[in-house]
Amino acid sequence: MPTNPLSPLDAFDLTGKVAVITGGSRGLGRAMAEAYSAQGATVVIASRKAEACEMAAVGISEKTGGTVLGLGCHVGDWDQCTKLVQRVISEFGRIDVFVNNAGMSPLYESLGTVSEALFDKVIDVNLKGPFRLSALVAEHMVATRTDDEPSGSIIGVSSVASTQPSSGEIPYGAAKAGLNSMMVGLAHMFGPRVRANVIMPGPFLTDISKAWDMDAFNENARKNIPLRRGGEADEIVGAALYLASNASSYTTGSVIKVDGAMTWAAG
Question: What is the pTM of this model?
Answer without folding.
Answer: 0.93
